[in-house]
Amino acid sequence: MTSKESILGVKVTALPIDTLLEDIERRIHSRDKGRIVAINPEKIMMAQKDGNLASLLNQSAYQIPDGVGVSIASKLLKGSIRWRITGVGMMENLLQLANEKNHKVFFYGAKEETVVKAIDKIQQSYPNLQVAGYINGYEKDEEVIVDRINEVKPDIVFVALGSPRQELFIDRNMSRMSAAIFQGVGGSFDVFSGNVKRAPYIFRKFGLEWLYRLISQPSRLKRQLALPKFLLLVLKEKFRKGNK
């Protein structure tokens, strides 16, 4: 099942979360490999300058609309996306799916104490979850990582190396690994471990996680400047299409 929109040349999956999870479940059963990437304005802007990144994103099975900027752009370009699926939210949904359907999960990335703490907290929330194993982010030998994953045969692999490093790791090795679903999850292990506080519900409800992060970390201001530049390009695209 595919339903995609294009925003400034970057594909975004236009499936609500329930339908998306149904399709992921189908992939797991058929062992049809799929990569999940989170698409936000910053990543779309990076893809404007990096053709390899744009190809990697567009060749993924699922490009989730991570951030209110993507849904605003979809509306401006007469698309159908009116929801957001954050990276950590997608991981949460996959954990719940795995807990209910007895799928095995594997964690790769972050510091040893962070990934261990995250797994402990996750298993408290999902007591039936089958954790096939983990490797911390200090392991750089990809042969060791691939062999370990193939040894324990997970269904879902979460990779927390930061973007685009995690996407590149998955791209290089997905065909060699036995799992079906791969998601690059950025700093999600820090969130699940409790090391990083998640944005309060009111911020998440209105798609203002970016504002909470900016308040908490003013050093992110330079990164957040990608949003107005992104919206300006989207408006130019809207008017260009409108004049055809």
From TrEMBL:
Keywords assigned by UniProt, alphabetized: Cell wall biogenesis/degradation, Glycosyltransferase, Teichoic acid biosynthesis, Transferase
E.C. number: 2.4.1.187
Biochemical pathway: Cell wall biogenesis; teichoic acid biosynthesis
Reaction(s) catalysed by this chain's protein: UDP-N-acetyl-alpha-D-mannosamine + N-acetyl-alpha-D-glucosaminyl-di-trans,octa-cis-undecaprenyl diphosphate = N-acetyl-beta-D-mannosaminyl-(1->4)-N-acetyl-alpha-D-glucosaminyl di-trans,octa-cis-undecaprenyl diphosphate + UDP + H(+)
GO molecular function: N-acetylglucosaminyldiphosphoundecaprenol N-acetyl-beta-D-mannosaminyltransferase activity
BP GO annotations: cell wall organization; teichoic acid biosynthetic process
UniProt function note: Catalyzes the conversion of GlcNAc-PP-undecaprenol into ManNAc-GlcNAc-PP-undecaprenol, the first committed lipid intermediate in the de novo synthesis of teichoic acid.
Family the entry assigns: Belongs to the glycosyltransferase 26 family. TagA/TarA subfamily.
Identification of the protein by name: N-acetylglucosaminyldiphosphoundecaprenol N-acetyl-beta-D-mannosaminyltransferase
